[in-house]
Amino acid sequence: MTARTEFEPVYKDIFPFWSRLSEADRDYLCENSYAVTYPRGRNIHDGNDCSGVILVQNGSLRLYMMSDEGREITLYRLHRGDICMLSASCVLESITFDVFVDAEEDSDCYVIGGPAFAALSERVPDIRIFALETAVGRFSDVMWVMQQILFMSMDKRLAIFLLDESARTGVDTITLTHGQIARYIGSAREVVSRMLKYFAGEGIVEVSRGDIRILDRKRLRELTS
Amino acid sequence: MTARTEFEPVYKDIFPFWSRLSEADRDYLCENSYAVTYPRGRNIHDGNDCSGVILVQNGSLRLYMMSDEGREITLYRLHRGDICMLSASCVLESITFDVFVDAEEDSDCYVIGGPAFAALSERVPDIRIFALETAVGRFSDVMWVMQQILFMSMDKRLAIFLLDESARTGVDTITLTHGQIARYIGSAREVVSRMLKYFAGEGIVEVSRGDIRILDRKRLRELTS
């Protein structure tokens, strides 16, 4: 199988500019791509280097910031069909902050080498626009997180997280530890445990070992407003 | 004076794409521009509407987020030669969060109507790239503010230090270098300098050569809680 036959079927659906690329540029992008499966928990991108453009085929990646003391704040997650552009800082020179990317599950990804993508995006305005728009779109996600953390109260934050997570997985039961939830919403484990206990006391959720089950979706939703 | 003769001298310096625009497009941008002086304290942009692209000629604009309760967080400031793109949400459809823009001083600005700029940026990739790059560049500023406030409580640590030091010496002026302060609060000189600049912008302190003078003790105290 050539690189072109391997990657083109995916690229032509994911990249709006694909049909306008020359044959040579399509070959170039495919030849500078590779398929990789990141095992659950693996750190994929670490700070401000140019790991490349990552396309998620299956699984889930988590982007986060980290303090000097190792405290993490999740910015957003990427799922099937999503593209990670912040891991290619050589493509977007104006991005000067460090983000980290971990695989949250075993994740099948395609990676396009950063320098190759950057070289092409210098030449082809369509690609540059796509890369920038992808980044700007995430800006809004990050601003949302910032607003949650800086402005909102904890009960609201936790309620939003539980509803989002339940919507994402399609089930009422959230299988995450309190520590994991705390990291996602930028809080401490103790705070999450205490708030979950409060929610449980109110009959909004049921907390058992390793599971949180949503009992009263209506009241949870009321908390988010 | 025609619109073209009024605005072109500024636009040709500020817009890297100007020389590549057609005559008709230059006319179009100029004819959809107006000059305005915002008085100090005036709110210029309020949330997610499309106020247009604002070019600062003189003065200072402040961009901030606001919570439901009216709490504000300054994201960054714009000065002479800077361009405000987040006030033109119709240009960047992927920006879905609300920012507010106030004039901090009497500010002379040129404004290009949002719909006109958006229409042109749809047609001219150079303009679209410029608009997106301007927005992505500010992404990094915002992430810095976020990191300092969320992780380091750097604002808090610095505020506590300045108040303690002032209490200890009995005067409003702290005569220490930024490097010395950084060592006292366990940070880096660059971080202290940047945070002091942030405080100065907020009118909390005045920073001069070798001195930091506390101007607004009440707000400094609020930061410590």
List the helices and strands and how they pair.
The structure is a homodimer of 225-residue chains.
Chain A: H1 3-14, H2 23-31, E1 33-38, E2 43-47, E3 53-58, E4 61-66, E5 72-78, E6 83-84, E7 99-103, E8 107-112, H3 114-123, H4 125-151, H5 154-169, E9 173-174, H6 178-185, H7 189-201, E10 205-208, E11 211-214, H8 217-223
Antiparallel strand pairs in A: 1-8, 2-7, 3-6, 3-8, 4-5, 4-7, 9-11, 10-11
Helix pairs in contact in A: 1-2, 3-4, 5-8, 6-7
Write up what this structure looks like.
- 2 copies of one chain form a homodimer.
- Chain A has 8 helices and 11 strands.
- By secondary structure, the first copy, chain A, is an alpha+beta fold.
- The first copy, chain A, has a 4-stranded antiparallel sheet. In chain A, strands 2-7-4-5 form a 4-stranded antiparallel sheet. Chain A has a 3-stranded antiparallel sheet with strand order 9-11-10.
- The longest helix of chain A has 27 residues, at 125-151.
- Chain A starts with a helix and ends with a helix.
How would you summarize what this structure contains?
The structure is a homodimer of 225-residue chains. Chain A is of the alpha+beta class.
Characteristic key phrases:
24% strand; 4-stranded antiparallel beta sheet; homodimer; 8 helices; 45% helix; elongated; 11 strands
Order of helices and strands of chain A: HHEEEEEEEEHHHEHHEEH
Q: What class do helices, strands and sheet pairing of chain A give?
A: alpha+beta
Shape label of chain A: elongated
Could you tell me the strand content of chain A as a percent range? 15-25%
Largest sheet of chain A: 4 strands, antiparallel
Quaternary structure: homodimer
Query: What is the β-strand count of chain A?
Result: 11
Integer-rounded radius of gyration of chain A: 20 Å
Number of helices of chain A: 8
| Strands side by side in the biggest sheet of chain A | 1-8-3-6
Percentage of residues assigned to helices of chain A? 40-55%
Question: Mean of residue pLDDT of chain A?
Answer: 88
Largest contact between protein chains?
A-B, 32 and 31 residues
Low-confidence stretches of chain A: none
